[in-house]
Amino acid sequence: MKDEQIKIWWITWIHLVDPDRKQIDKLVDKYNLHEIIEQDFLDFTTQDKIDVYDGCLFLVLRFPKYNTKTKKHFANQMHAILWKDFIITVTSYVTSNVEKIQNQYRQEIKEAEDDEKFKLSPYYILYKIIDAMYDKVLTWMTKFSQDLIQIEDKAMDSSSITQETLSELLIKKRSAVLMKHIITPHTEILSELQTATMNFYEWDLDVYFEDLQYKTDKILSLVSIAYENTESLFDVSDTLTTLRTNKVISVLTVFTVLLWILTRISGLYGMNVTLPGQEFAWMFWRLLWGMLWITALTVIYFKLKRRL
Length: 308
Known about the structure:
single chain, alpha+beta, six-stranded mixed β-sheet, 6 strands, rod-shaped
């Protein structure tokens, strides 16, 4: 649980991480928040949405977060409330982006020109937050593609995919599906946010929202490509496994044929009846050499037929 508040000129930004009931009640009472907002703060399973209340915007978005221990992605939900000079953001898990965005925003405001006064607003801060989250996703997508290339190279070099690599591939596939489910609703939410912002904010932020929509489309395109590549690697895995299985079956088939021939010969001379040549001592060695020749000829035959 973490509570952080900063003030940049007249803009106040409060950021909470996994707030408890006491912190939420304090916010609700202090800023007279709608009861629906209070319920959504307590429930981090709320679907992505945007609501307009008297004098404020309420936004719920989910972003992917990576767990270094499990090497899996999961959804980190963010709630945001925006007034004219105030913004509250709440996330279910800690994100390193917040402090980074705050420092970048302070520097950007210091260097802002007179015609960039629009940057001193909660709506521009929201743009910076979402933009930073998207940049992080794009960086991850680049690493995702590189990991798939490495998996493919290992599979081709060893002509097989190990259990560990297959498990990693399954995690990649799950991450791609999760990423798509997280980012897909953003397209509609950003469009609604752009329209709602016009009613609350006098400055034109269309170019920034268009940038976010462009990044959303790019992420979804990369996710689609990554998913197809993952599926392709699964097909490669199945093909390599089938080839290896066929190879093993071919070898076992040859051994079965050899054992069948040799068993017939040894079984014939193991019969308790009079057989030709049994009175000669050298007959044993002749049978042995005959069996070896049959073995050699069988192996040569299967070699020529490319069964070995």
